[in-house]
Amino acid sequence: MNVDLLKRLCETPGVPGREERVRGLIEKEIKGLFDEVSTDALGNLICRRHPRGKGGKVVKASGGKRPQRVLLLCHMDQIGFYVRGVDDKGFIRVVNAGGFDTRNLFSRRMTLVTDSGDYPAALNPGGRPVHIASEADKAKIPDVKELFLDTGMPADQVKKKVKIGDYCVYSDPFVELGEKCMSPAMDNRVACWLGIEAVRQIEREKTAHACEIIVAFTTQEEVGLRGAKTSSSIVDCDIGIGIDVTLSCDTPGVPEDEKVTEQGKGVGLHIMDSSFISDYRLIDDMEQCAKRNRIAHQRTILMRGGQDGAAAQQTGRGARAVGVVVGTRYIHTTTEMIHKRDLSAARDLLAAWVPTL
Ligand SMILES: [Zn+2]
């Protein structure tokens, strides 16, 4: 399993609207896997692989019948913050891009990305430290408005180097631990990894496929599936596969019936969330394929939340759509954790199933 690629994807910063570094990494990584690669106005990287015959040979289009188009959507953005101002003392105010639980936003180490370079910074809400905090202070949950970044630089330096519109992300490194991996950017570099590694497996095994396989590495999912809408419109697919993380609440404090997925039990077949309901025939077909290939899998429903599959399903003339997900603990925190077995099951399922479409 190519853990090194996942690490590099996770450690490359990219918030909604600023995915260019992640896109750059992916562009280098996919050399030789696709026949056409383009970037649209929203920054989506759209990669097309024409049908392949026996031995992996490119099949020339003939007779005017176009191949079925299968679109895999993998969002490149991660949640983060934009700079909204610098005060006279050099403290930087921020606004979130994507959903944060502000209970998790005390004493965070951040990477601040600017035109003049990347800088380390501390993120904290305003207020007194524990020694002098009142009981009311301690119980308070901060608002995003109260958060500020401290770069350690004198105010005049900060004002020179940092401007409104710069952005920051958690700086915590990618870690392998036990059978798992942890990084603040698992959502959704996991899907970027899958979009590359599944096609790499198809290429390596010279698997024939009658369909055109299109992988769109999309932008701005965390703020409303924005990139997925334009890429779905451009591709005009017949089948859309939204690849993303989902919750894995198989942890203390969550009732058994709310766990969503259980880690280590395989790739998630995403039945529904609040943005779309997967095509049940595709779910059945995918499940049969998983069984035939002995790939660990689990059916899963997310009661709240959405993902790019909805855009593929509902854009233009619409498409049959399905979700393929990887159960992730502690989502939207700096400790997002996935099980390597679930991730490799997702890759194996995509590599086995997509060529059959
Ligand atoms: Zn996501």
Topology:
Blueprint: H1 3-10, H2 20-29, E1 36-39, E2 45-49, E3 69-75, E4 80-86, E5 92-97, E6 108-114, E7 117-125, H3 135-139, E8 147-150, H4 155-161, E9 167-170, E10 175-177, E11 180-182, H5 186-204, E12 212-218, H6 226-235, E13 239-247, E14 267-272, H7 280-292, E15 297-301, H8 309-314, E16 320-329, E17 337-339, H9 340-353
Parallel strand pairs: 3-12, 3-13, 13-16, 14-15
Antiparallel strand pairs: 1-2, 2-12, 4-5, 4-9, 5-8, 6-7, 6-9, 7-8, 10-11, 11-17, 14-16, 16-17
Bound molecules: zinc ion.
In words, what does this structure look like?
By secondary structure, the chain is of the alpha+beta class. The chain has two domains: 3-78 and 184-356, Aminopeptidase (3-Layer(aba) Sandwich), CATH 3.40.630; 80-170, Elongation Factor Tu (Ef-tu), domain 3 (Beta Barrel), CATH 2.40.30.40. It has nine helices and 17 strands. It has helices at residues 3-10, 20-29, 135-139, 155-161, 186-204, 226-235, 280-292, 309-314, 340-353, and strands spanning 36-39, 45-49, 69-75, 80-86, 92-97, 108-114, 117-125, 147-150, 167-170, 175-177, 180-182, 212-218, 239-247, 267-272, 297-301, 320-329, 337-339. Strands 1, 2, 3, 10, 11, 12, 13, 14, 15, 16 and 17 form an eleven-stranded mixed sheet that branches. Strand 14, helix 7 (280-292) and strand 15 form a beta-alpha-beta unit. Helix 1 (3-10) packs antiparallel against helix 5 (186-204). The protein is globular. The model has no long low-confidence stretch (mean pLDDT 96). It binds zinc ion. Zinc ion (ZN) binds at residues 75, 187-188, 221, 244-245. Residues 75, 187-188, 221, 244-245 line the site of zinc ion.
